Amino acid sequence: MAKASRSSRTKQRQAHPSKGPHSAKATRNTGQRRAVSPKDTPSRDSLSTEEKIMQAAKKLFTQNGFAATRTRDIANEAGINLALLNYYFRSKEKLFDIVMIDNFRQFIKGISIHLLDGATTMEQKIQRIVTAYIDFLNNNPDLPIFIINEIRGNTSKIAQQINEEVAPLRAHMFRQIQEAGRQGRITPIDPFHFIANLIGLTVFPFIGRPLLQRVTSTDDQQFRAFMEERKQLVPIWINAIMHAKSPLDRAR
């Protein structure tokens, strides 16, 4: 009889599963499930694919320029098909603007933090800006030539975008240089010469790298070591220029 009773109870539970100990939880879980579209929650795969496209585009655009880079080349570099690239970025122009302007903004952001710091002296700003320049260009060595070519050819929005991003910082730096000159903290100098020295001493080695390495018989490791040294040397040279007596003043 006991065996028959247990069998009867088992059949009842099978017939009425809602009375089981886990049935409520199962019902709640079932009620929470719904179809989720890709637009609701981006998957890890989609983010990974987008990052691959951005990295490939950055590499090819900076090495070859905008005109010489095809979207098929970017897709091959990213290891995806062309249709998938077009799904994420509808045109080469859009991808180009996103990648390169984003890079430039990162560069400007690193400099603006130091430039706009009201608690630092002009000498400290120079030291930190030079370090930020060199660190950034060590990681993006092809970027200076790319920017120069794009500004010269004016084939995209990047020239206009750079000017818009730089304008507030340029005005702020010019005011600081002119104010320091009026107060006698530095030798009065036209901001053009200051910017020319800063860019020339930090950026030109990356632009002229092939020639410099060939003339000096320097390999890549040695070049990076020299650029690390220039983090200390360039501020010393610029500060010496800012405190030197200008022969132009005597001529006037």
Short key terms for the protein model shown above:
76% helix; Arc Repressor Mutant, subunit A; 252 residues; mainly alpha; disordered N terminus; globular; Tetracycline Repressor, domain 2
Description:
With 252 residues, the protein is mainly alpha-helical. Helices cover 76% and strands 0% of the residues. It folds into 2 domains: 44-90, Orthogonal Bundle (Arc Repressor Mutant, subunit A); 99-244, Orthogonal Bundle (Tetracycline Repressor, domain 2). The chain contains 14 helices and no strands. The longest helix has 25 residues, at 158-182. The radius of gyration is 30 Å and the shape is globular. The N and C termini lie far apart (122 Å). Residues 1-44 have low confidence and may be disordered.
Q: Roughly how many Å apart are the termini?
A: 122 Å
- Structural category: mainly alpha
Could you tell me the CATH topology label of the largest domain. Answer: Tetracycline Repressor, domain 2
Helix content: over 70%
The residue ranges in which pLDDT falls below 50 over 5 or more consecutive positions are: 1-44
Report the sheet with the most strands, covering strand number, pairing sense and barrel closure. none
Number of helices: 14
How many domains, in number, for the residues? 2
**Element order: H for helix, E for strand:** HHHHHHHHHHHHHH
How large a portion of the residues is in β-strands, by DSSP E? under 5%
Secondary structure blueprint with pairings:
Blueprint lengths: L1 H14 L7 H10 L11 H21 L6 H8 L3 H7 L3 H24 L6 H18 L3 H11 L4 H25 L8 H12 L1 H4 L1 H8 L3 H24 L3 H5 L1
Helix pairs in contact: 3-4, 3-6, 3-8, 6-7, 6-9, 7-13, 10-13
